Each structure stands twice: as C-alpha cells, then as structure tokens.
Amino acid sequence: MGVDFGYRGERFGLPEHGPGSIASLGRRVAAICVDWALCALIAYGLLADGPSSLGNWTLLVFTVTGILTVGTLGSTPGKRLLGLRVVHLSGERLSFPRAAARTVLLALAIPALIWDRDSRGLHDRLTEAVQLRV
Predict the structure, then answer these.
(1) Whole-angstrom Cα distance, residue 44 to residue 57?
(2) 132 to each of 44, 51, 81, how far by Cα in Å?
(3) How many CB atoms sit inside 10 A of residue 31's CB?
(4) Within 10 Å of residue 13's Cβ, how many Cβ atoms?
(5) β partners of residue 85
(6) How far apart are CA 111 and CA 126, in angstroms?
(7) What pTM value is reported for the model?
(8) Which tens digit of pLDDT belongs to each residue from 39-96?
(9) For 20, left (φ over 0), alpha (ψ -120 to 50), or beta?
(10) Closest Cα to residue 84, out of 125, 128, 11, 35?
C-alpha cells in the first residue's frame, strides 16, 4: 500500500508504451554492454599494450565515444542498435555540454546506479536528460 505515482514518464508527458516512452532497464543495460564491447575491441586493437591496461583504455574510448555520439547524434552505437535515443526533457536534442557532462558522470558509474521513480539515473537527472525508445 503506497502512493500511486503513475507510469514511468507520466510526469514528463511521455507515453506509457511505444515510441517516445522511457526506455526499459533491459534495453539500456543491453545497449551499454554493446557499447562497452565495441570500445573494448577498439581499445584492444588500437591502444592497449596488454590485458593489464585494457580496462583503462576501454573506459577512455567509452567516454570519448559517448561524448561524441550522444553530443552529435543523440545515441551511441549500442543505443542506436537497440532503438534508444537520449534527449533533453523538453524533447529537444541534448546539447553537447550536457552530453559531455552526462557521459563523464556515466563513466564514474556511481551516478548511473542511483535512480528515481522514472528509472532515470542521477547522471540523467543532473543533465535533464531522458532515454527514450525510438
């Protein structure tokens, strides 16, 4: 017995299901796994000296890729593959500085693990962003 807050995204005027609704946790986790795997492959092939430095290079490639792709296209390769997009709460494209701040906070990991009732991580809340289904 608790307070009914409605569905995820209702307070932003977003639909409950379908295109334009808040992306599910499963899709977002799958997208970040695809992005991490691609970045690890790039880091392994181009930058890493061996397995000991692969994690650091992967994080660097992940951060740069996230800043560039979310800041310009609105989605990373993993998000695009799974039909997700990052936008501002107003529905507009996320500005480049906001996309950069969001990605840096995501790379720190802790802000992404703190969620609100709309399943938005702290990194999305601080940058006024939301991940939507396309």
Answers:
(1) 8
(2) 31, 35, 13
(3) 22
(4) 9
(5) 132
(6) 9
(7) 0.89
(8) 999 999 898 787 888 989 999 999 999 999 999 999 999 999 999 999 999 999 999 9
(9) left
(10) 35
